[in-house]
Structures are given as structure tokens and as C-alpha cells.
Write a structure and sequence with these properties.
It is a single chain. This protein is an alpha+beta fold and 240 residues long. It has two domains: 124 residues, Jelly Rolls (Sandwich), CATH 2.60.120; 98 residues, Homeodomain-like (Arc Repressor Mutant, subunit A). It has nine helices and ten strands. The strands form two sheets. Strands 1-2-9-4-7-10 form a six-stranded antiparallel β-sheet, sandwiched between helices. The two termini are 24 Å apart. The relative contact order is 0.17. InterPro entries: AraC_XylS_family_regulators, HTH_AraC, HTH_AraC-typ_CS. This is HTH araC/xylS-type domain-containing protein. Keywords: DNA-binding, Transcription, Transcription regulation.
Length: 240
């Protein structure tokens, strides 16, 4: 397992093929197989395969990679809204992996260059529009790993009521602020999973218990926290 993160991005990688069940994440996802294909399935539609994928926030889907892969997750404010899902060709996938600068996916190589990967990505998607700084602040406070202030506290910081802030964020980025806060806690738990039990990671990230973390991971990632520590996920060949 490989994991790296900065303020608005997180990178996950596995050295084998993987499949996850139906889920919705409140952030962008970019799937970059090493030498195979990425597959996305949506209810009522035929599965689609490509060299790589860009999946928008809040899209219910299943996903699979037929080889080792990298998955880049980005805050919803970082890419242009209204995109996707987008299919990436092999040349685009190679450029994105090259920008990350990784020779290995087991975490033993150099630190991935997330900023370079983002710069390469926006050449494909276009630059995100400028947002109300109050929205940017609220999203950043909600998704950063670590202690998260309450929504009323964030609203007070930017001079809004909690209800007005929730509406402003949802209108601007299409994602409820509460779901972004769930993502932030999940990201925090994944960050500390290596070397810790799932129960310990849940407690450290602010989940009520291990079951709460597991439900959140299934909802937002389509897999369990334990699968992140024991090897590639398998959602079953029949789950599209």
C-alpha cells in the first residue's frame, strides 16, 4: 500500500488488481492503472473500461483496476465542475504517473510529487474557477486530516450562519459539507492505519467506533478499512 497526502489531495496505490463495490465519494478520483485497464460501472449502464478514469464527486459507481494502480483523490474545489466521468487514454495516464515521479507502488521509493501531478491533470480538465473564499476555507477545514472544528465554528470564522454556510458550499461545489467532513475523518483514519489496528485508527480519527469507520469506508470508498491493510479489495466479479 502507498499513501501520500497534502492539503487538498491524497494518493493511494496498490501493487495488484483491485475491485470495489458501489460507493460515492465527495471528492474527485483519478484512477491510473500501471499496465492494465480501469473499469467503471453505473447502475443501469454497461461498464466502461479505459486506460484511466476521472470520476467526479458524488457519482454512485463501482470501480476496478486490472493491474497495480494509483488512485488520486482531490478536493471538489480543485477541478472544473461538471466534468466526467472522463476516460483517459494511455498517453495521459503515462504523463500523470510520470508527473508523480514514482517508480514503485509499495511506498519504498521517492515521495510522490502531488503538485506536479495536479499541474498535469489540469491540462486535461481545465483550471477550476475561483470560488468564494469562505467556501474554500470551509472545504479545507473539513477535509484536512486532524481535528475538525464544528460547522457552526467554521461558519462563525467566515461570518455566516451554519445554515447559510451549508447552502453556500453545496451550491458552489455540489457536495454537502457534512459529507466532506466524513471524508476528512476517513482520510485521517487511512493516514494512521499503517502500524495501527482499525479500532485504534477509528478512535484517533474521531469515529465513534470501528463499525462507524467501516460503514464510512464502505460508503465513500466501496471497501473496508481492513482491506487497506491486508491487500487488494475484491468486490466480487458480478458487482458492476
Amino acid at each position: 500500500m502507498l499513501f501520500a497526502a497534502d492539503a487538498g489531495m491524497a494518493l493511494f496505490g496498490e501493487s495488484a488488481a483491485s475491485r470495489v463495490t458501489r460507493h460515492r465519494h465527495p471528492v474527485w478520483k483519478v484512477v491510473l492503472p500501471v499496465d492494465g485497464l480501469a473499469l467503471i460501472g453505473r447502475e443501469g449502464r454497461r461498464p466502461v473500461a479505459a486506460a484511466g478514469l476521472i470520476v467526479p464527486p458524488e457519482l454512485a459507481h463501482t470501480c476496478a483496476a486490472s493491474s497495480a494502480y494509483l488512485a488520486l483523490f482531490l478536493d471538489p474545489t480543485l477541478l472544473r465542475p461538471g466534468l466526467g466521468p472522463l476516460l483517459l487514454d494511455s498517453a495521459s495516464v503515462r504523463r500523470l504517473r510520470a508527473a508523480l515521479g514514482l517508480n514503485r507502488i509499495d511506498g519504498s521509493g521517492r515521495t510522490p510529487d502531488l503538485a506536479a501531478a495536479y499541474a498535469e491533470l489540469v491540462t486535461r480538465t481545465g483550471v477550476a474557477p475561483s470560488l468564494d473564499p469562505r467556501v474554500t476555507h470551509a472545504v479545507r477545514c473539513s477535509t484536512l486530516p486532524g481535528h475538525h472544528p464544528s460547522i457552526p465554528a467554521i461558519a462563525a470564522e467566515v461570518g455566516l450562519s451554519a445554515a447559510r454556510l451549508r447552502t453556500l458550499v453545496r451550491t458552489s461545489v455540489g457536495v454537502p459539507l457534512a459529507r466532506l467532513r466524513r471524508w476528512g475523518r476517513l482520510r485521517a483514519a487511512i493516514t494512521v492505519l499503517p502500524g495501527r489496528s482499525v479500532a485504534a485508527a477509528a478512535a484517533e480519527a474521531g469515529f465513534a467506533d470501528q463499525a462507524h469507520l467501516t460503514r464510512t469506508a464502505r460508503d465513500l470508498l466501496g471497501r473496508t478499512p481492513l482491506s487497506l491493510t491486508t491487500g487488494p479489495a475484491s468486490g466480487g466479479a458480478g458487482q458492476q
